Amino acid sequence: MYASREDIGYDFGDDSKVGSKPIKPNPNIDGGWAWMIVFSSFLVHILIMGSQMALGILNMEWLEEFNQSRGLTAWVSSLSMGITLIVGPFIGLFISMCGCRLTAIIGGILNALGWILSAYASNVHYLFLTFGVTAGIGSGMVYLPAVVMVGQYFQKRRALAQGLSTTGTGFGAFLMTALLKYLCTEFGWRNAMFIQGAISLNLCVCGALMRPLSPKHLSDKSVVRSDSEDNGAKALSHSTETIKSNGALSEEPEKKEEATNEEVLESVQHTETGGNSRSGRNMHGLRILKTVSQLTLTVRKGFALWYSSYFGAASLFTNRVFVAFIIWALFAYSSFVIPFIHLPEIVKQYNLSSQDNVFPLTSIIAIVHIFGKVILGIISDLPCISTWNVFLMANFTLVTCILTLPLMQTYVGLAVICALIGFSSGYFSLMPVVTEDLVGTKHLANAYGIIICANGISALFGPPFAGWIYDITQKYDFSFYIAGLLYMVGIIFLLIQPCIQKKQPRQKSTEEAQ
Predict the structure, then answer these.
(1) How does the average pLDDT of the chain come out, rounded?
(2) Residue predicted with more confidence, 279 or 209
(3) Where in 268-408 does DSSP place strands (E)?
(4) Buried b or exposed e, range 46-80, using 16+ CB within 10 angstroms
């Protein structure tokens, strides 16, 4: 059973000193402004993840506009989705130095800029830079803080808060599919991207709502651990508790370095105060020196925190089951992403556009995905049910749907398969729990960050691979068959490794008995 969960958030306080001084709890934790944070995160999921799941509409427009191969054109969408997840560990550096609010606001500007610049694209390669890279990095800079802030503001109701905020992905996929389809029909894809860029500026508003908690309340909050769900657990990869456990960052050198920097700043400030009689040029230079010193201190602290968190987890790769989990993640997420990118064109080839316009197949996946996450989470919490078994059954259902989808050529058949894909992909809410069981709560932060990066790589290469297979065979059938078979290989790795680890202790006990 998987009864325990780990905190989602950044803990900047000193845990060792919390017990000695009683701190008055912040009224905004588990209430008050915390629900505004949930609302902000919900909108972020709609505007970022929802928009990415609706890129199949734009992919068709790009194919007609630039007349390039499907494999090359699919790179635009996959770059945006993949980079959003892959840059997560590096965005942690910005959060350590600037905080969640400023990072999210900058990311919102970058994301909107990527959409707007893409409206003037003259070729697919231009879209690689503007939409794939610029909008992708901007999305990552908003998405991670949105998950982190929910973890900071909630203790007792964290599972509920994370669940409510992440349902924005399903609602966003449904709403953005309809919106982009309408905008492309009425105004053309270029104006549609320009309008979507203007809408994405609301991400800056979402970032502004991410009011940081004071360090003392973050310290007090780190004492109480409660349950968490969904892909938001990757935010744990930056927690101070994990950094301390890695042993990569000692306290004494840090204190000495901090004292030295403070002495420098004090000397600069003293010189500035005593130099009123000097020229204005010297005063201006001293102010610049003071600002640079403070900035250098902040950057060095943030980099040390980030580096020790992510590069102090090499021991995780000695866990064979965790390595098998990474291999699974490299193949799994692409099977979920490929239908969102290529289904609109498949519908067009089957002459089902009129029915799909009434209720798009990608919207069916999105809506049922919401219920799948909730229902699978409830089932896995039952005392008589193993979360690992629920996780495996959902994976088997999803891979079966991926292999069966090419056989369906009617709207009803495709709708049923898409509904099953949406429901079974609800296992995403179980991934933090399964990861915790594999590596323990101590290493959950870094482990889940690695899994999310693997999912990003899967999203990066999945859609272009499917398009490349189509360019060779002139059918999408083999794209789904190969993706399904690779997915099955990942599931087999998950099944084999636990069996191997169970046999090893038995062999040792037999040897001891002899």
Answers:
(1) 76
(2) 209
(3) none
(4) bbbbbbbbbbbbbbbbbbebbebbbbbbbbbbbbb
A 10 A CB-CB count for 506 gives 9
Pick the CATH number of 33-212+310-502 from 1.10.150.120, 2.130.10.10, 3.40.50.2300, 1.20.1250.20: 1.20.1250.20
* Residue-level pLDDT at 208: 93
Q: What are the residue boundaries of the structural domains of the chain, listed by start?
A: 33-212+310-502
- DSSP string of 289-313? HHHHHHHHHHHHHHHHHHHHHHSS-
The residue written with tokens 């456990």 in the block is 245
236 token code pair: 């744990």
Identify which of 206, 236, 228 has the alpha carbon closest to the alpha carbon of residue 154. Answer: 228
- List pLDDT tens digits, range 433-466: 787 777 776 666 567 778 888 888 988 888 888 8
Q: Which residue has the tokens 């009803």?
A: 412
In angstroms, how far is the first alpha carbon of the chain from the final one?
33
Helices (H), 154-279: 158-166, 168-187, 189-200, 202-208, 215-221, 240-246, 251-274
C-beta separation of 44 from 142 below 8 A = yes
pLDDT greater than 60 at residue 510: no
Q: Would the CA dihedral through 435, 439, 445, 448 be positive or negative?
A: negative
Q: Which residues contact 438 (CB under 8 A, 6 or more apart)?
A: 319, 321, 322, 325, 447
Q: How many distinct helices (H) and strands (E) make up the chain? A: 24, 0
Where does 304-429 show beta strands of DSSP type E? none
Residue-wise pLDDT for 51-62, tens only, equals 988 898 999 999
Pairwise CA distance, residues 398 & 402, whole Å: 6
Nearest to 501 by CA among 323, 327, 321: 321
CA distance 255 to 263: 12
Compute the distance between CA of residue 177 and CA of residue 200 in angstroms, rounded to an integer.
15
CA 444 centroid distance within chain: 15
Q: What are the contacts of 467-470 at 24+ separation with CB within 8 A?
A: 467/69, 467/70, 467/71, 467/72, 467/73, 467/74, 467/342, 468/69, 468/70, 468/71, 469/71, 470/70, 470/71, 470/342
